[in-house]
Design a protein that fits this description.
This protein has 13 helices and 13 strands. With 369 residues, it is of the alpha/beta class. The structure holds pyridoxal-5'-phosphate (PLP).
């Protein structure tokens, strides 16, 4: 891999729109990134403070009580009863894991990594860092006789908020087992499910008993507390699933010093058990989402997918850069859909991660002619 094979950092191309939006007399409403703005729950902050005395090196694999807390969370929230604590790995945020998983699995030139057609850019970056070839597709049929070594799923999806149903996940798992493919499912928005007819308290997981029959071999679910608990600044996340795969990853991560700091491991446990805080945060997003969605639809936009997660995947059925310019003139900054692949060319991604005051300003601006 050479640095030159990495894509340009896409946000640089938003500079002009940002300048336009920032010139609005009421100030910019920045809905272009999914960075939480509400406070980190108090029990999580307290756990971090309580763990401030940390003279020794932490465990790469996480402390046993952290691994047990993750397994218990899967049983309580994800309909996945058999998660083995030995199959749990804390990660330094999930972006780190997404970017390095192909490398940690030993993939390289000639290996294919399957990624979603409309996707968070780091799946592609991770394949490139390993020297492997990213192939964007939402259908396993695309791979024909040359299956990928690793297939990334992302449910709920960023940017489009699409939720993969149980039956779809089960089909992918059956296909992956037949072709010896590792499936990594990035589920970091799972708690933020807006569907009325949901199958459980969260969106379905790849480790859901109804998806994999309790057999986690070849499977990894990737989760982060950044979004559900407003602690993106902590870098607190984990992967869970096949203990043999996790063991391989731990061996490499030990050599590479990829260790979640001990105070963050303690905060992670607190975040996983602070269910009331997650429910309260969800109510805040419901209110923001409802008003923003109504304002966009009232202004002639169509919202596609967006069944879960922190974004509205919105279109005016015209090139996304024209829509971005139109929003910027109203002082609103959003992310163009082409950041996420050519299939996003007519959409923009509008984040719910702004204060109530800024969301109200966006709603007001959208409703004025
Ligand atoms: C789909 C997806 N995966 C992973 C991440 C990374 O989250 P973090 O590194 O904060 O855990 C993000 C962040 O926006 C995301 O949208």
């Amino acid at each position: 891999m050479s640095i030159a094979s990495l894509p340009d950092f896409p946000w640089d191309s938003l500079a002009q729109a940002k300048a336009t939006a920032s010139a609005h007399p009421g100030g910019v409403v920045d809905l272009s990134v999914g960075t939480p703005v509400d406070p980190t729950p108090e029990p999580v902050q307290q756990a971090l403070r309580d763990a401030a005395d940390a003279p020794g090196y932490p465990q790469v694999w996480g402390t046993p009580d952290l691994r047990e807390a993750v397994a218990a969370w899967f049983a309580a929230r994800r309909h996945a009863t058999g998660v083995d604590p030995d199959g749990v790995l804390p990660t330094i945020g999930s972006k780190e894991f997404v970017a390095w998983l192909p490398t940690l699995l030993g993939l390289g030139a000639g290996d294919v990594v399957g990624i979603p057609r409309i996707a968070y850019p780091t799946y592609d970056v991770g394949a490139r860092l390993a020297g492997a070839t990213p192939v964007a597709s939402d259908s396993t049929l695309t791979f024909g006789p040359m299956p990928p070594k690793l297939l990334w799923l992302n449910t709920p999806g960023n940017p489009d908020g699409r939720v993969l149903p149980i039956e779809h996940l089960a089909k992918v798992v059956a296909w992956a087992r037949e072709h010896d493919v590792v499936v990594a499912s990035d589920e970091c928005y799972a708690e933020l499910d807006w569907r009325d007819d949901a199958e459980g308290p969260t969106t379905p997981s790849i480790l859901d008993d109804r998806v994999c029959g309790g057999d986690h071999s070849g499977l990894l679910a990737v989760y982060s507390l950044s979004k559900q608990s407003n602690l993106a600044g902590y870098r607190a996340a984990f992967a869970a699933g096949d203990p043999r795969l996790v063991d391989r990853l731990v061996q490499v991560r030990k050599h590479a010093g990829m260790i979640v700091p001990w105070p963050i491991q303690r905060a992670l446990i607190a975040g996983l058990t602070a269910h009331d805080a997650v429910a309260a945060q969800k109510r805040v997003y419901v209110a923001r989402r409802t008003s923003l969605r109504a304002a966009l639809e009232g202004a002639g936009w169509r919202i596609d997918s967006s069944e879960a997660g922190l974004y509205l995947w919105a279109t005016q059925d015209r090139p996304c850069r024209d829509s971005i310019q139109g929003l910027a003139e109203r002082g609103i900054l959003a992310a163009p859909g082409d950041f996420y692949g050519a299939a996003g060319e007519q959409h923009v991604r509008i984040a719910l991660t702004a204060t109530d005051e800024r969301i109200a300003a966006a709603v007001q601006r959208l409703s004025v002619g």
